[in-house]
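Duplicate of #3305? Posting structure anyway:
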């Protein structure tokens, strides 16, 4: 690698010819002699040589800059990795973080136990009961949504469809239905005159009710969301939180994975 290059240019005119002497000094190893050459070159050749030398210098400088940039990036990455390791170590030993983690685990455990308890009571599904089961069902849970229906009424079938869709998403309330024709005692006792009739029970006591579709726009094509909003407004079910949706999606994803794995096992056999 040449240490440095010094070019001394001189111009002399002789008989319409241009002679340029270029003295190039090389800094080389001690056992090599620095040559001094006198080169006769025309202007175009000299210009080309100088351009080549200049291009070489630019490329060498660019290579040095690129190497410096790579070294700086490597140092920055190493520093960042060290900081991350230190931060993780500090977080692992943080008592407040450990407490938050323990509290979160405890909350999830309580929620799972609550869900299990509600499921055993019939929450999470839309079930039909008989007149003999009625008192036990409406007093066995804090919140109960009971649909008095008639098998031949078209609007009762519409209400069934929406309540069935809501039941799995609202474990906080029990969703049930009872055939009004086969439950004359409670129909009379509760003063039911029009079907469909949805009565909301809290701790076994009848409260608000939804008669027909009068609070849902009065038309048959109301949405499940509209019925859900009505029940939320009455306080019989809770507004679903985003984390609840994510949890439900996660549970559904797990169920799909299990089903997919089972199908693969069956196919392989």
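Output from current build:
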């Amino acid at each position: 690698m040449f240490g440095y290059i010094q070019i001394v240019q001189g111009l002399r005119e002789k008989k319409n010819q241009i002679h340029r002497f270029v003295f190039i000094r090389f800094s080389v190893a001690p056992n090599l002699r620095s040559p001094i050459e006198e080169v006769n070159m025309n202007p175009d050749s000299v210009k080309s040589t100088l351009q080549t030398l200049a291009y070489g210098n630019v490329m060498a400088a660019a290579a040095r800059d690129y190497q410096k940039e790579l070294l700086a990036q490597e140092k920055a990455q190493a520093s960042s990795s060290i900081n991350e390791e230190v931060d993780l170590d500090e977080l692992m030993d943080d008592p407040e973080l450990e407490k938050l983690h323990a509290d979160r685990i405890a909350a999830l455990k309580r929620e799972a136990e609550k869900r299990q308890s509600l499921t055993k009571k019939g929450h999470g599904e839309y079930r039909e009961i008989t007149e003999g089961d009625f008192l036990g069902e409406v007093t066995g849970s804090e919140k109960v949504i009971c649909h008095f229906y008639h098998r031949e009424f078209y609007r009762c079938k519409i209400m069934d469809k929406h309540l069935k869709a809501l039941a799995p998403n609202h474990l906080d309330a029990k969703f049930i239905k009872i055939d009004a024709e086969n439950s004359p005692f409670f129909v009379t006792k509760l003063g039911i005159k029009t079907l469909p009739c949805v009565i909301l029970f809290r701790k076994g006591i009848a409260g608000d009710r939804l008669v027909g579709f009068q609070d849902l726009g009065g038309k048959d094509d109301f949405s499940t969301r509209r019925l859900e909003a009505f029940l939320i407004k009455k306080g019989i079910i809770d507004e679903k939180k985003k984390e609840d949706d994510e949890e439900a999606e996660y549970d559904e994803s797990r169920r799909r994975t299990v089903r997919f794995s089972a199908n693969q096992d069956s196919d392989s056999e």
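Confirmed duplicate; merging threads. The longest strand covers residues 5-14. The radius of gyration is 43 Å.
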